[in-house]
Amino acid sequence: MNKIAVIILAAGKGSRMKSDLAKVLHKVAGKSMVNHVIEAAMQVASGHIHVVVGHQAEKVQKEIQKKHNVQFAFQKELLGTGDAVRVALPGVDASIDHVLVLCGDVPLIKKKTIADLVSTHLHQMADLTVLAAKVKDPTGYGRIIQNNDGQLLAIREEADATDLERQINIVNSGIFCFEKGFLESGLGRIQNNNSQGEYYLTDLVEVAVQNKSKTLVKITDDAEQVMGVNTIEQLTRINTAFHKASNELS
Asked: Which stretches make up the Nucleotidyl transferase domain (predicted)?
């Protein structure tokens, strides 16, 4: 049995929310966003969930601990998603073979979507698998660049994309599954020579391609469930989507 650990990224400030509350503590249907994500993750890794905290770390931990027994890692400086995962890795059990990375601000993610991503990753024996979404309007998202065999070649941010690449409507969700050995070695190779001075998890795609490691893309047509929350307007939209989905199920 392949053992899976989950790392949930929940350290960000969420300054665009224009709120004193840490981003992941904003509520959807009366429950903080990060707790929605933890509940979805429990299907694949109930005993191996690690939450990376940073901004308002104590408040975030307190809120999570009311409902869940998870492990925490502290990101002292917010140096990007790659750094956040690097901070959490030492706490991951030595018996773990694969690591799923989720975002604490994607509260509509479904258990089945996570389980399908992990299952595809394991069956195809991939080193890196990204969850991508097919969207009507890809503006603002990182585009998924693939070859004819479906291998992931790059995740191209909009600012760096060519006119042709901007027409691609399959975009990065920020959710990944990694073979642990590849993840550990790859994180040691990524650089922070970008405008933000941050270590990006997406740079591991370039490492994988250089290594000739196996990369996969798992695509969901349900883009709404991988929609992140960066503004109060998006939070309102997510709440509306959540209630609509609940009504359809009842």
From this structure: 6-216
Return the closest-CA partner of residue 82 out of 204, 214, 193, 172.
Answer: 204
d(CA 171, CA 155): 8
User: DSSP strand E in 57-161: where?
Assistant: 71-74, 98-103, 128-134, 143-146, 152-156
First to last CA, the chain: 36
pLDDT tens for 9-68 read 999 888 888 888 999 999 999 999 999 999 999 988 878 999 999 999 999 999 999 999
Tokens of 83: 């750094």
- 51 phi-psi bin (left φ>0, alpha ψ -120 to 50, beta other): beta
Q: How far is CA 60 from CA 71, 238, 245, in A?
A: 12, 20, 27
Which residue is associated with the tokens 């929609």? 227
Packing angle, helices 81-88 and 180-187, rounded to 10: 120
Task: Identify whether 237 is a catalytic site residue.
Answer: no
CA distance 139 to 248: 29
Pick the catalytic residue: 16, 86, 143, 189?
16
What residues does 10 pair with on adjacent strands?
53
pLDDT tens-place string over residues 111-133: 999 999 999 999 999 999 999 99
Structural contact between residues 114 and 36, judged by C-beta atoms closer than 8 angstroms? no
Domains of the chain: 4-249 (3.90.550.10)
